[in-house]
Design goal:
This protein has 296 residues and is of the alpha+beta class. The chain folds into two domains: 160 residues, 3-Layer(aba) Sandwich (Aminopeptidase), CATH 3.40.630; 118 residues, Nuclear Transport Factor 2, Chain: A, CATH 3.10.450. The chain has nine helices and 14 strands.
Length: 296
């Protein structure tokens, strides 16, 4: 497996990574939050890597900076004997913490098509006092399930359904359709890939509503995002709560948007409620209701 993000290359761990693994396993953070593996030289690091490569339940990927190809961390997907599903883990050299690399890499692994195709649910564990790990897991969308005890250690167990990851991707893709920042041209064909042809869109303003179907919703937005009426426009989700029940789902979303309408800059925020159904082609938006509640 090899893929990339905006700043990173992510690839399967190999014996060529021995020097990096030796450094990573001997950092204070690894020993404190994961445990001392007694890997003290390059040869022992190679033995450690070989055990990982030979175990079909282990999947370790090394994260490298695109700029210079410097290895900075790793992301793992492991099927542990005491857990029902694979769990995701991550560790980075201390000099690269706090820069968003762990979120970027872990998010890429979670949302990679191979991950989504192979798993139904993904777990994660962390020591109860590892606040940075907990914050990252919650930012990735995992939810605290319960406390467990493993080899005398008290751990928090987090989980997420793969269907929720797919819905996260779908919503992110939907929001991105309307972006025309820096001359970006919206891809309107994506509306037909993210929404049912029969989807309903409702704009609420006080006690009034405007009701659209797919074409009547898209057509005026195509015009104003292309003719200069609405420039530098983008909108993004800031929080969400999703409920999945079988092949149907609903999501309550808070969002923000900004741009320049007829040359006048503006910002706004509001609520959206998405409804989804799972089709043979995957999850699709079947209805959307939104209401803007502040603007400046």
């Amino acid at each position: 497996m090899f893929f990339e993000t905006d700043r990173l290359f992510i690839s399967r761990m190999t014996l060529d990574d021995a020097e990096f693994i030796l450094e990573l396993l001997n950092t204070e953070g690894w020993k404190k939050f994961i445990g001392d593996r007694n890997v003290n030289n390059k040869q022992e690091a190679e033995v450690y890597i070989r055990k990982i490569i030979d175990n079909p339940n282990f999947g370790y990927s090394v994260v490298k900076l695109k700029a210079g190809g410097v290895p900075i961390g790793m992301v793992s997907m492991i099927k542990r004997d005491y857990l029902d599903y694979h769990d995701i883990g991550f560790a980075f050299l201390p000099g690269y913490n706090g820069k968003g690399y762990a979120f970027e890499a872990a998010s890429a692994v979670l949302n990679h098509p191979s991950t989504l195709a192979r798993h139904r649910r993904i777990l994660a564990t962390t020591l109860k006092h590892n606040s940075s790990s907990m914050q990252l897991l919650e930012r990735l969308g995992l939810v605290l399930d319960k406390e467990i005890k493993v080899e005398g250690k008290e751990l928090f167990l987090y989980d997420i359904e793969v269907d929720e990851l797919l819905l996260n991707r779908l919503v992110h893709r939907f929001f991105g359709i309307f972006n025309n920042v820096n001359g970006h041209q919206p891809d309107w064909e994506e509306m037909r890939e993210t929404c049912l042809p029969e989807a309903v869109f409702i704009k609420k303003t006080g006690l009034e509503e405007e009701i659209y179907h797919l074409e009547s919703f898209v057509t005026p937005r195509m015009k104003i995002l292309a003719d200069g009426t609405l420039k530098e426009f983008k909108e993004w989700e800031v929080s969400a709560a999703t409920k999945i029940s079988g092949n149907i789902a609903q999501r309550f979303s808070k969002y923000e948007k900004s741009g320049a309408l007829n040359g006048v800059p503006f910002k706004a925020s509001g609520n959206k409620i998405f409804q989804f159904i799972k089709t043979r082609e995957g999850w699709r938006i079947s209805a959307l209701v939104w209401e803007d509640f502040t603007s400046a």
